[in-house]
Design goal:
Layout lengths: L8 H4 L2 H25 L6 E5 L5 H10 L3 E5 L4 H6 L7 E2 L1
Parallel strand pairs: 1-2, 2-3
Helix pairs in contact: 2-3
């Protein structure tokens, strides 16, 4: 049964869009990192990144804060796998 993605899947899996999303993630990370540090002030947390796109932020969360598990979900699920960003044992996409 096809999944309804409201016309977003194909454009989001485009290589140019992946580059754009990764650039956006790098640009906003310095602003988000202090906020996330307050959230990840204890160990053993599980993270659900809904709308994870390329998985760039999920990967940064995993490396910076060492949560127990990071799960990234996106309508265009192929983008996480194709970028190779989710190389940690705790990241699933």
């Amino acid at each position: 049964m096809p999944t309804k993605t409201y016309g977003q899947r194909e454009p989001m899996e485009n290589e140019a869009m992946e580059h754009t999303l990764e650039t956006q993630a790098r640009a906003i990370w310095p602003q988000e990192k202090p906020y996330l540090r307050r959230i990840f002030n204890r160990s053993g947390l599980q993270v659900l990144d809904v709308g994870c796109g390329t998985g760039e932020i999920s990967s940064r969360i995993l490396k910076e804060f060492s949560p127990r598990e990071v799960i990234g979900l996106d309508l265009a699920s192929g983008t996480v796998i194709s970028t190779g960003r989710c190389d940690g044992n705790s990241v699933r996409g």
